[in-house]
Amino acid sequence: MESLIQDLKYAVRMLMKSPGFTVIAILTLALGIGANTALFSVVNGVLLRPLPYSQPDRLVVLSEKTANFESSSISYPNFLDWQHSNSAFASIAAYRSDDFSITGSGEAERVRVGMVSAGFFELLGVSPVRGRLFTTQEDRLGGAPVVLIGAGLWQRKFGSAPDIIGKTITMNGDGYTVIGIVPASFQLESTNFGVKDVFVPIGPNKDPLFYHRDVHEGMRALGRLKPGVTLRAAQEDMDQIANNLAQTYPDADKGAGIGIVPLKKDIVGDVQPFLLVLLGAVGFVLLIACVNVANLQLARSTTRAREFAIRSALGASQFRVIRQLLTESILLGLAGGALGLWLAAWGTQAALRTLPETLPRAQDVGLDGRVLVFTLFASIVAGVIFGLAPALKTARPNLQETLKESGRGASGAKHRAQGVFVVIEMAMALVLLIGAGLMIRSLVDLWSVNPGFNPRGVLTFAVSMSPSLGATAATSRSAIRQLDETLRDMPGVEAVSTTGGALPMSGDNEFPFWLEGQPKPANESEMNVSLFYLSGPQYLRAMGIPLRRGRYFTVDDNEHSPAVMVIDEGFARQFFPNQDPIGKHIHIGIIDTAPEIVGIVGHVKHWGLDTDGDSKHPIVAQAYMPFMQIPDGFWTGPPQTEVVLRTKGSPAALVPAIRTAVEKLNSENVIYETKPMEGIVAESLAARRFSMILLSVFAALALLLSSIGIYGVISYVVGQRTHEIGIRMALGAQRNDVLRLMLGEGMRMALIGVAIGAAVAFGLTHIMVQMLFGVSATDPVTFASVAILLSAVALAACYIPARRAMRVDPIVALRYE
């Protein structure tokens, strides 16, 4: 310990003696360690940190599997059968999302609702802050209307009133008794469940279709495995249940399976490969930073060669000299790590504020004990990596030669070591730049994809109307028509349409059907499936969707006229090949109608610019029906609708006027989820954009560090060879000859690094295949462009010290030392 303390004191003195070197080394390491720490904090929060529930490793998500979807929603009767028939789960609970309007407590407000079955919170190990949870008697048709409210809403809407338990609040026109307060920290990100303001029992649902076995309204289930039961055993148990249901209810359940996925995997989704690729990329940045500091250390060791030669001559062992140098290196690493930790804390929060929607479990990302240990480990390892080579080189001095040297010149071996370091960092920088280049090209190609509609100038929003307007289907239709007329007459509005069912890139709804002239399939799994849009007459104009043939809806296509339908080109190609579909009918069993096809419109990339029609989103056929032709039985509860509105100016600028107009119709009307369509398209590319930005940042850091590295080496070589340059010029060498000599030496290292980096990138970019779109993982244009860019930056970095070399005065150089 005594000698270690001596080494530390001496290391501090030596670092303070060279403040320029110390500051540059610490800043370089801080960039590398900070970037690694920031990304590790994301990986830790998303992938490594356990979910905040009791025994989270035993929690799974259950969903139905169909021919078209690997994971789809569950019908409520099927859930009840799963719940009662399984032997693998300690408990199973259902959940789905909805929105209600709270009225009678100040200003009308739309709140996010979690509809959950009894036992949902107990399954997760969540206890109420106050009050109690739902009972099985409340979670059934005809059960008492009760509600749990989130602590956030309790504070915001009710001022944290302690007597809230037992009070009645009005939602969608019905009174609900508050029985408990859910912790503010509670949320379930599974299937976009997210943060909810209130929770109600799922069993007393007023929609009669909810209790049909062949109707799926966005419900999924959570299960807690019994002790000792494996995921495989649970799957076998649920497969048996699915087979039994298929035999008992063939019309609804034949061909349907049950999928089981760990809750954590369901939440994290497909983000894991992205994060692991980024973690590997940021590791390259740290290695480049270490190589840069190692080069600085090698250059600095030249001036200390006599010091260590004298120490060796006085009896210092080789190990003692290495330990001293490693102590200095690790001290630098820890200082760089401390600064990097601050940069990571700042950078992580900035990234989360910029792109919060792209990352699952974003609320769990932050600095904790595991991140601090990682930073400490990275700092020590970095110190050893960049300090080892200079330490080994300095610890084996040629005492006789070194003691006779006056400090002029340096060994070619040392130059070669620095050259090797430059080659390494240039190669790694090229790999990162190629990765970033491929991502940038993918995003550029995606933005050039035609989505099938024109999102510019389009605003989407939802409207929940006063419960007093929804007593009957007729009054609901009247309220929707009045809303449509009010919005259409507003200044700056070019076209407006109410809409329901599916909305491109932000929601989906499918319906099974069979074609006219064909027998009705024996069960739903044998039926055709199409995406289903409900809309008004101006929908095509509002969305900018082209009409290919026939006509679209008019105001005359209403509840009193024959049912009509418009299909897209994909529907026509898939189900009416080499036929004219106009005038034909299709049968929709769920609404017991057979609308006539009256038009064909262009295809919309509903699932996203890059995912339309892929293995996860195989349904591409699209069908449209008039909003007003929804059967009377579907008009339940307060009227609500989504709206698409095309404006002449900025959509966001029109929001206040729209809100005023909607509330003027009725003070209990609520407008919510206002989003420009361009923002929805951008959100569909959020994950790719997040990866591209991070890869580009890492690549820029690598480019900066590698250019600084090659600049530093050439500057060092020029300083060491000043005497040689003077002799060359005295013997007749021209300034351009000296320039070519220095540039040639620097570019030789750079081009070797570029060649090695290209070979490495050729092998590594294959792991990015799923992250790319419209470009090959070995795209020659990207490889060539990046190689030219890096070579040009290296040339610029070499030129400055090389130009200084060509200006050396031979007389001054010959008198050098």
Structure description:
The chain is an alpha+beta fold and 817 residues long. 49% of the residues lie in helices and 16% in strands. It contains 24 helices and 21 strands. The strands form two sheets. Strands 11, 12, 13, 14, 15, 16, 17, 18, 19, 20 and 21 form an eleven-stranded mixed beta sheet that branches. A six-stranded mixed beta barrel has the order 2-3-8-5-7-6. Strand 6 (168-171) and strand 7 form a beta hairpin. The longest helix is centred in the middle third of the chain and has 37 residues, at 318-354. The two termini are 42 Å apart.
Give a brief description.
With 817 residues, the chain is of the alpha+beta class.
Structural class: alpha+beta
Uncertain stretches: 406-413
Radius of gyration: 34 Å
Strand segment count? 21
Total helical elements: 24
Q: Give the oligomeric state of the chains in this entry, treating copies of one chain as homo and distinct chains as hetero.
A: single chain
User: Distance between the terminal alpha carbons, to the nearest Å?
Assistant: 42 Å
Helix percent reads 40-55%
- What is the arithmetic mean of pLDDT? 87
How does the overall form come out from the CA principal axes? Answer: elongated
Major pleated sheet:
11 strands, mixed
Report the sheet-strand fraction: 15-25%
